[in-house]
From TrEMBL:
This is Enoyl-(Acyl carrier protein) reductase. Gene3D superfamilies: NAD(P)-binding Rossmann-like Domain (3.40.50.720). The lineage of its organism: Bacteria, Pseudomonadati, Bacteroidota, Flavobacteriia, Flavobacteriales. It holds the Pfam family adh_short_C2. PANTHER family: 3-OXOACYL-[ACYL-CARRIER-PROTEIN] REDUCTASE, CHLOROPLASTIC, SHORT-CHAIN DEHYDROGENASES/REDUCTASES FAMILY MEMBER. SUPFAM superfamilies: NAD(P)-binding Rossmann-fold domains. It comes from the Bacteria. One of its GO terms (molecular function) is oxidoreductase activity, acting on the CH-OH group of donors, NAD or NADP as acceptor. InterPro entries: NAD(P)-bd_dom_sf (IPR036291), SDR_fam (IPR002347). Belongs to the short-chain dehydrogenases/reductases (SDR) family. GO terms for biological process: fatty acid elongation.
């Protein structure tokens, strides 16, 4: 049982948290929020150089931030990463943030692109959940936070892309992200008796810095939120910190939408 001090706080108190893709545009902000709240964070990814480049100015790098090689497309790679970390650490939380996909056209997408997208967005989450379960069962608790998307909840507004077709949201992305939400509910129900909580976070409009160079497209996105702005990476960190903390110990099977009100309209 968590102490009252921990329940009333989002201080992560050296909890060990794994973040797949934790050096990307949004993953970096998630990781930095966790570090700011005193977590020990293992970033799982395939490129150690990108990891060091992303966090080269972070003073906590040597103390609480670590890199572990992990290819989420390969079960053996996931198993090895979890095993390596668990030899000296008790994992508290797994955050499934990484994705991979190819293809974009709703009409001309190949079977190969469709399969790769579903594998990189949905199947990869299943693989990591499956492989972390034995560790959480052993410790008698654990938390899994899956990253979905508002496009797993609603269809794109295609008028947004009229003048910016290169940014068109692809069909397999939303379909797979919807699957992530259902997978979250499934495993929340299945794993609850072992005190393992499973939740999802669905970001809304968080375009990358490169995409933000297209001001016309960004204005289209802004107009569809209630706050008249796009999301910034730092807007996303708090929900992952909260869900990783003891303050969320009675929350499971939920999907938290962080979209500036887009889907509420």
């Amino acid at each position: 049982m968590a102490s009252l001090e921990n329940v009333f706080s989002v201080n992560l108190n050296q909890k060990v948290i794994l973040v797949t893709g934790g050096y990307g545009y949004l993953g970096k902000a998630i990781t930095e929020s966790l570090l700011a709240h005193n977590a020990r964070v293992f970033v799982l990814g395939r490129d150690k150089n990108k990891f060091y480049k992303a966090f080269e100015t972070n003073k906590n790098l040597d103390e609480n931030l670590f890199f572990e090689y992990c290819d989420i497309s390969e079960t053996e790679s996931i198993k090895n990463a979890f095993s390596n970390i668990s030899q000296k650490n008790t994992v508290n939380t797994l955050i499934n943030n990484a994705v991979y996909l190819s293809g974009q056209s709703p009409e001309k997408m190949t079977d190969e692109d469709w399969s790769r997208g579903v594998d990189g967005v949905l199947n990869s989450v299943f693989r990591t959940i499956r492989e972390i379960i034995p560790y959480f069962k052993t410790t008698g608790e654990g938390k899994i936070i899956n990253v979905s998307s508002m496009y797993g909840m609603v269809a794109p507004d295609f008028s947004v892309y009229d003048e910016s077709p290169n940014f068109l949201n692809p069909p397999h992305y939303g379909a797979a992200k919807a699957g992530v939400i259902q997978l979250t509910k499934y495993y929340a129900s299945y794993l609850g008796k072992w005190n393992i909580k499973v939740n999802a976070v669905s970001p809304g409009p968080f375009p990358s810095k490169k995409v933000q160079e297209n001001r016309e497209f960004i204005n289209e996105l802004k107009q569809r939120t209630c706050l008249d702005r796009i999301g910034q990476p730092e807007d996303l960190g708090g929900i992952f910190t909260f869900l990783s903390s003891d303050a969320s110990n009675f929350i499971t099977g939920q999907n938290f939408t962080v979209d500036g009100g887009w889907t509420s309209k």
